[in-house]
Design goal:
Helix content is 43%, strand content 13%. By secondary structure, it is α/β, with parallel strands linked by helices. The protein has one domain: Rossmann fold, CATH 3.40.50. The chain has a three-stranded parallel sheet with strand order 1-2-3. The longest helix has 18 residues. The radius of gyration is 17 Å and the shape is globular. It starts with a strand and ends in a 14-residue tail after the last helix.
Length: 134
Amino acid sequence: MLLIVTPDDVSIRSAERAVQVMETKQNIRPRLIVNRLDPMFVRSGEMLSAATVAQILDLELLGVIPEDPVVYRSILKHRLFIRYDCEARNALIRIAMRFQGKQIPLRTFTEPCRRLFRRSVPKALKEVTAIDDH
């Protein structure tokens, strides 16, 4: 059984309740997938890491799917993102392989990107302000 969670408070609270129900009714402990993780927000402390989410829920972390603009763009084109070579697709492939019992290293997406261009030109975080703050 799998439990897919985003690293935000509402999703984690809902997941805690889902785990309780699963354990009570089916005596099953699900494995965890953290979806839409943004490494820049994790590094800046604005988002929980996948390891922290797994620790809070006390579940085995099966994999992490990073936030990936290719997913949204493929939705706009009415196409499956799995057909594009992107981080989300690669993460799903790694998760599927782990689910089948293969020993695939867990990528957390909190380490800096290894591509030279992305390493040398970091993406700036956009400041978010509430409408009523003006």
